[in-house]
Each structure stands twice: as C-alpha cells, then as structure tokens.
Amino acid sequence: MKWFSQVYYRYSKIWKIVKLYFLIAGPGLVVMIADNDAGGITTYVATGAKYGYGLIWFLVILVPVAYYVQEMTVRLGAVTKRGHAEAIFDGFGAFWGWFSLIDLMLVDWLTLVTEFIGMTAALRIFGVPPYLTVTAVCLLLGVIVLNGRYWTWEKIALVFCAFNLIYIPGAFIVHPSVSSLVRNGFIPNFPGGFNGELFFYLMANIGTTIAPWMLFFQQSAVVDKGMTEKDIPWGKFDTMLGSLVTGVVGVFIIIVGGTVLKGVDIQSAAQASHLLMGVNRYLGTFMAIGLFDAGLLGAICISLASSWAFGEIFGWAHSLNNKIKEAPWFYANYFITLISAGVVVLIPRAPLVLITLFVQVVAVTLLPAALVFLILLLNDDKTMGEYKNTLTQNILNIAIVVAIIVLSSLYGVSVMFPNVFH
Amino acid sequence: MWKIVRRQFRKIGEINRKYSNPRIEMSMPVRLSLLLLRGYLIFLVGLMIFRFITLLH
C-alpha cells in the first residue's frame, strides 16, 4: 500500500509539472515546429530520396544549432520586452532598422506564398480546388487570431504542431532497415563523396532549419506572451524541446523518403505524396496531411511575424490580446499579407517556381544581418546585464552564426547560379 | 485617404528622428561588424543585379 501511494505521489507530481509546462509552453515549441514548413518538408523528402539515410547525422547536428540561435531571442525578448525589429531600430539606428523591416516584410510575404503553394498542392491530392483551400485557410487563420487572446492562439497553434508528428507513424509503415539506418544515418559520412550536389543539399537543409522570420517571430511572441527574466529557463526548455521535436520529425521524413523514394528526383512534397499514394494509401495520405499542416503552421507564424514588427515600429497596438477595434492596423497588416499571398497562388501562370527560388535569395540578405544584430545586442552590457552572452556562449554562437552566414550565402548564390558548384 | 497616407509619412519622419542615434555603444568590434555587413550586402545586391541583367539578356 505504501509502495502504491509513493508511486501515485510521484506520478501526480510529474503530471503537475507536465501540466504546468503545457500552460507555459509556447513560442519555442511553435516556432521550431513551424520551421518544418512546406519548404522544409520538401527539402527533407528530397534529401532522403537523393541520399537515403546518409544525411540524417547532419540533421541531428542542426538540432543544437537551431536551439542556440533561437535561445538568444528568448533572452533578448524577455529582458528588453521588445521585438527583434524594435531592438534593431533602437540599437543600430533607423538605417539598419528600415533595412531589416522592409526585408522582413518581403521575405515573409514570399515565404507565405510558398506555404500557400504547399497547402493548395496538398489538398489538390484530395480533390480540393485551390480557391477553396485559400479561402478556407484565410478564414481559419482569421478566426484563430481574432479570438482576442494570445494564450488561445498559442494553444490552437500547438494543436496544429501535434499534427506535424504524423510523419512518425508514416516512417513505421515503410519498415526501414534499422541496421542500415544506424550504420548509414548516424555515422557522419558524405554519401557519394563531397561534391557540388551534396553541398547544395547540406546548404538547403541549413536554409530550412534557420530562417530569418523565426528570429523575429519568437522574440515578438516572447514579448506578447509577457515573459520576463524569471521565465527564461522555461523559454529555453521550450525552445530545446521544440528543436528536438523538429529534428525528430525531419529525421522521420528523411527515413520515409530514403526507404521508399530512393533514387527518385523529388521536386516537391506534393509530388512525393502522389508517389507515396502508389506505395501505400495511408502513407501518401499522411504525407499530404502533413504537408498541409506544415504550410498552415508556417502561415500562422509568418503572417504574424511582420505584423508584430510593423506594430512595434509604428507604435500601433500590436498584441493578439487586443480586439480588432483596439489594434486595427495590426490586424489590417496581418490580413493584407495573408490574403495577398493566397491570391498570388490562384493567379493563372503566376511564376510560382521563380517565387520559391527568390525566397532563398532574399532570405540570404536578411538572415546574416539579423544574426549579427542578435549577437551584438546579446553582448550589450547596458541592455542585457547579467543575461548577456558568456564567453562560452559567444564562442559557440559566433561560430554557429559565421557558419550559417557562409553556408546560407553559398546556398543563395547556388540558387542564383545553379551550375556554380557542379 | 490622402490624410491617412500623409499621417503615415509624418509617422515615418518621427520614427527616423526617434531612432536617429544608435543606442548601442559603437565600440571597435561593433563598427567592424557593421562595416563587414555593409560590404557583404553591397556584394550580394550587386550579384543579384548582375543575375537580373544576365537573365534579361
């Protein structure tokens, strides 16, 4: 009896901690899982189809990389109570501020278009016409943000995050060879030798793991949620868990691609879903649902990132806790961004492939700037006080930021000049 | 409508004045980082313009 009561006591204690975490959980988990957006899913499937399990180790390395970068936004947001755009304006002046804000608006809008491309392609598999998908998504996202509470928005976003896990049962359906997975996937190697094509895939994976909108989004979300210095450990844990989940999901997508689609030239996740339907109906369905959910999650976060940033700078009310009457410019910005991106996808013969490529190039102009500003702000004694970067954090973060800048720039160049590394 | 546009332009002027002086201390590493960033962006934009012109031809 005593043993039973001890077990019950421990169980209820753990359950209380889990419940408490899910009350506090949010920005880190949402931003990291939303990172597996439509473009990300396509990159992972294509990586698996091209190199089998061979590059899983690289994705594992990217988990701590993503964590260390995003963790800085948690500290900066919680200490300064300012979004990243406002922090740049304040710290570095109007020139760098406008550069970041306008670049962010452009990158976010283009990325949002790619999310709509993913969502319409996913639902077309089930016979849903694109105009219906775009209308339904705009209405759904409208209902989610107009409920007038940040907390409710965040919990709804977390439900959509859960759908991202659909790739995990998908990987079990294909029965991957565990020994081959361990041998080829988790021991660092360059399948087929280090060449231009492999380099392109490595860079594409980095490009999908660290995106500029994520920095702006998470910092603004931390501020809107009202997190303070004492919440930093929870914010860090939230971000760590999010980066782990996003890495695990990415690995499972590569497993699906590497097991069933090895050797197939994958151009889009929708094409992969079609092919997987031929292998197993459930698998193809899972892939299509996952792609739609990924696009939806991306759209939920990206459309907010620029609205928050504009609100911070123009001094408009810019919280999800505000009703539409209290923050008309914030919601107008949100809906204009969302609806215009959706409409572009419906335009016949719109240059969607060009837009998809252009996103990578424009992102390369914003990401290095945003990362450099992040490091400099985190080293500002006056702003950060005891929460500034330590020497170890600086060494680690500067190494990560330099590597990301170099590789993402090379990726951008390779998108502009496709034969440069071949 | 014209009033709203004028108000927003006035607002942009206010923002420029508000953030005219960077608050962060312009130490040597900060200056160097910003200089490198400018150089990097000029190079990248130049590359984009070059690509755009070659695409047009």
Folded structure, characterized:
The complex is a heterodimer of chains A (422) and B (57). By secondary structure, chain A is mostly helical. Chain A is 79% helix and 0% strand. In chain A, α8 runs antiparallel to α15 and α9 runs antiparallel to α15. The longest helix of chain A has 34 residues. The model of chain A has no long low-confidence stretch (mean pLDDT 87). With 57 residues, chain B is mainly α. Chains A and B meet through α5, α6, α17 and α19 of A and α1 and α2 of B.
Characteristic terms for this protein:
heterodimer, A: 422 residues, mainly alpha, 79% helix, B: 57 residues, 2 helices, flat
Beta strand % of chain A: under 5%
Mean pLDDT across all residues of chain B, rounded?
Answer: 85
Radius of gyration of chain B: 18 Å
Give the helix proportion of chain A (percent range): over 70%
Care to count the β-strands of chain B?
0
Query: Greatest contact pair?
Result: A-B, 29 and 22 residues
**Which residues of chain B form runs of ≥5 with pLDDT under 50?**
none
Distance between the terminal alpha carbons of chain A, to the nearest Å? 70 Å
Determine the number of helices of chain B (DSSP H or I, runs of at least 4 residues).
2
Backbone structural class of chain A = mainly alpha
Mean pLDDT of chain A: 87
How would you summarize this macromolecular structure in one to three sentences?
The complex is a heterodimer of chains A (422) and B (57). Chain A is mainly alpha-helical.
Strand and helix map with partners:
The complex is a heterodimer of chains A (422) and B (57).
Chain A: H1 2-24, H2 27-34, H3 38-51, H4 56-80, H5 84-92, H6 94-124, H7 130-145, H8 150-163, H9 167-173, H10 178-185, H11 196-209, H12 212-225, H13 232-260, H14 269-279, H15 281-314, H16 328-346, H17 352-378, H18 381-384, H19 391-416
Chain B: H1 2-18, H2 28-56
